[in-house]
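Morning run. Coffee first, then this:
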Amino acid sequence: MFELETSYAILLVLCLAAVCAFEFVNGFHDTANAVATVIYTHTLKPWVAVIWSGTWNFLGVFAGGITVAMGIVNLLPVETLVDQNIAHSLSMIAALLLTAIFWNLLTWYLGIPCSSSHTLIGSILGVGLAYSFLPEATGEAVNWGKAQEIGISLLVSPLFGFSVTIILMYLIRVATKKTETGDALFKEPKKNTPPPFWIRGILFLTCTLVSFFHGSNDGQKGVGLVMLVLIGIVPAYFAINNNLDTRQLPASITKIEQVVTTIDSTTLSKGDRAKLSQVIVMTNDLQTKFRLVNSAGSIPKDDKFVVRKDIMLIDRHLKDLMKKDEVRLSETDKKTLTSSMKEVRKVTDYSPTWVILMISLSLGLGTMIGWKRIVKTVGEKIGKEHLTYAQGASAEMVASITIGLSTSFGWPVSTTHVLSSGIAGSMVANKGVKNLQPDTVRNILLAWFLTLPVVMIMGGGLFLIFRAIF
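And here it is:
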């Protein structure tokens, strides 16, 4: 398979199976975020809710695109993905997968709503940092610009969910004050009695939206993991999009070159001059390669990873240079660079349909299993009172909007933390901070703070151990 030795082919299959296992665990770990409200308000029976949620998780992966997935891939700079020893690539993949799966399973077993996003990103960062300690390491081991962008999105999203849910609860209370609707919305649901039809419709819709957007965001993380595996182990087949028609690319690369050559290198630092020279050399090389072919698949196998590396480095160098005050470009030139690089990045930013289908199935099936532990925490243990219709609808509406917007911008966010913070916000909106259960809130915050350092240490440690063994 892919011209690999039998032993490496088996390891490749095992790595892909491990990614599916991670996404499967992600499914039943995060299902609670979509179904807890409809279960605890008696809107849907538990098994109907999880099957419905699983279906929309599946559809969400297909609709989400690959922007978030590429953010995961690009956390590790491309030059750290591959070297001459395939066992080193396998060491990297095995370390981050084992770490992510272990922490997800541990927090699920303890019933703590923990972020799969934090877990995955922490393990990737840990592997990248560990790589930087190796004697052969060159360049940055982590794309810190991308890491900072993702870190901000993970930090801001739960705060947004908490605060906006409080505001929405207040608006609902004001709008329905002294009405029968208000009484129904803010009362504890009657045991085993479904809510009024219109309330049931709203809760059903918010459950569907959270499930869909969870698939569109968290599903992409699994897609990104698969691409890390494929690029790291068999770059000759997956480093670039082999099905892409490249006949228009020379024109885009020419536009980049024309703008870059107008930059006055005498005003730049030594390091920036080196970046500018690299960009000019690499754009010339790419033009030569793409003029000889009509599709990326026609590029010789040995050159495919080089093409990927050059495109990624050009993109990174241009972003760095455009931030410099010494680089004076017109708005038109900046737009030309941005649009041209977007076209060129189609060569590297892709995912095969079979990868998306595999992750969709894993996430959808995982959604239907193992959901009870986290559902109980979200539904019963965050607040001291039973979840009301207004609380459930507000938390899920805010969560769906937050995750949907994040996906459109290509930001990975934690569905777990967004919805858990929304539930907490709804409890605070009802009776203040005293309405929260301190033990549960403490455990969630503890998991939030511990996840990154623990998985970074574990992922990095496993990577160094595997490298030493292999």
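Residues 6-237+352-469 form one domain. Good start to the day.
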